[in-house]
Amino acid sequence: xxxxxxxxxxxxxxxxxxxxxxxxxxxxxxxxxxxxxxxxxxxxxxxxxxxxxxxxxxxxxxxxxxxxxxxxxxxxxxxxxxxxxxxxxxxxxxxxxxxxxxxxxxxxxxxxxxxxxxxxxxxxxxxxxxxxxxxxxxxxxxxxxxxxxxxxxxxxxxxxxxxxxxxxxxxxxxxxxxxxxxxxxxxxxxxxxxxxxxxxxxxxxxxxxxxxxxxxxxxxxxxxxxxxxxxxxxxxxxxxxxxxxxxxxxxxxxxxxxxxxxxxxxxxxxxxxxxxxxxx
Length: 280
Ligand code: SAM
Known about the structure:
By secondary structure, this protein is of the alpha/beta class. The chain folds into three domains: 5-114, Tetrapyrrole methylase, N-terminal domain (Cobalt-precorrin-4 Transmethylase, domain 1), CATH 3.40.1010; 117-221, Tetrapyrrole methylase, C-terminal domain (Methyltransferase, Cobalt-precorrin-4 Transmethylase, Domain 2); 233-275. Helix content is 41%, strand content 17%. The chain has eleven helices and ten strands. The chain has helices at residues 21-29, 38-47, 62-74, 95-103, 116-124, 141-151, 167-178, 201-209, 234-242, 249-260, 264-275; strands at 5-9, 32-35, 53-56, 79-82, 107-111, 131-133, 157-162, 182-187, 195-200, 217-221. A five-stranded parallel β-sheet has the order 3-2-4-1-5, with helices on both faces. A five-stranded mixed β-sheet has the order 6-7-10-8-9, with helices on both faces. Helix 6 (141-151) links the parallel strand 6 and strand 7. The N and C termini lie far apart (65 Å). The structure holds S-adenosylmethionine.
């Protein structure tokens, strides 16, 4: 094995049989494992008979720990990064470490395996030739709606991660902003209560509001119609984009023009009117 290599190792998202032979071998061979939660990963490692030095690497110690991990790599040692479940760097820590290792010319090697988004897409029955993975939507409703407005004109299937307690409100916002699209809620993938709820947003909301959805979920949204639905008219789009005041009039107009297909100048003048309170 070449020295000074950073391995990005995917681990199961529920079912331990999804651990790959290669992941087990690499974790057994390297010098140090950097794990999101060392206690959590210890269970996985002991299941596979792996005993290794471990260090924690999570959201709030990334800067300080990243430097220490890079030092280990600089000494010619090899390190594996794992997260609590699935593929590191996919809505999990890792990006900064990979970026810094790449900048120093350190070899970075992916060890592929489970990823909830890809597993969900593969079994969803929604178009998979083109898709956008957008991670977790914002938790506050205003920002979440703006985020969805920005996604409205994207081609292909849209994939989101969501906390189970926010699923219902997020589905309601999806219906409000994107319209009555086909969706799939993939829950507890690879686990005992695995389930894929398919249908229109309203169909799936019915199951969700009856309290049937618990556990981890991926939300998949089918592409919209080519024509811009009424729910993403220029004024509505601008309202959504400008409501929390983070975007300038120019940037909001630019985005609104992309989403609705109107010219930038038309979007800009509508945005100015909205800003001046001419449109309520
Ligand atoms: N890095 C992970 C991956 O590769 O999928 C994702 C980590 S992210 C912090 C956790 C989110 O992934 C959960 O909130 C849920 O949206 C999704 N997720 C993880 N495991 C899942 C599962 N077994 N079934 C459905 N969704 C899952």
